[in-house]
From TrEMBL:
Domain spans labelled Succinylglutamate desuccinylase/Aspartoacylase catalytic: 6-137
PANTHER family: ASPARTOACYLASE
Cross-referenced InterPro entries: AspA/AstE_fam, AstE_AspA_cat
Official protein name in the record: ACY2 Aspartoacylase
Length: 138
């Protein structure tokens, strides 16, 4: 199957404010973008939940759990949870999944206190490009 080339990549850090490895990397790459930039590709490091980056996992609810159609389509009112509003902003900036304006690839950096070493989680294990990329990273 012919697929268009990957042109736009986002690197997220800080989805959970208490997972600081991604936060530090994203901030570093925002200041030193040449490390992640590649010819013919836009790479955008992005701090996903900066208000939570005070050693707290989230402000109102887990940002990773609100990227669903119901929350993304909610009307913005004053008492909407912070992470729901942030998910809507992120969805607007990086494009709705499957849409023409969506980024081609998003890395969401996390860390844990368990002794599991480096871990990569695939969204789609049938995508040859992603599998090959993960082998390269590994």
């Amino acid at each position: 199957v012919d697929k268009p080339p990957v042109r736009r990549v986002a690197i997220f850090g800080g989805t959970h404010g208490n997972e600081l490895s991604g936060v530090f990397l994203v901030k570093h790459w925002q200041e030193n973008g040449a490390e992640v930039q590649r010819t013919g590709m836009e790479v955008k490091p992005f701090l996903t939940n900066p208000r939570a980056v005070k050693c707290t996992r989230y402000i109102d609810c887990d940002l990773n759990r609100v990227f669903d159609p119901d929350n993304l389509g909610r009307t913005v009112v004053e008492d909407i949870p912070h992470e729901v509003r942030r998910a809507q902003e992120i969805n607007h900036i990086f494009g709705s999944k499957g849409s023409d304006d969506a980024y081609d690839l998003i890395f969401d950096l996390h860390n844990t206190t368990s002794n599991m070493g480096g871990t990569l989680i695939l969204e789609n294990s049938r995508d040859d490009f992603t599998i090959q990329m993960f082998h390269y990273i590994k």
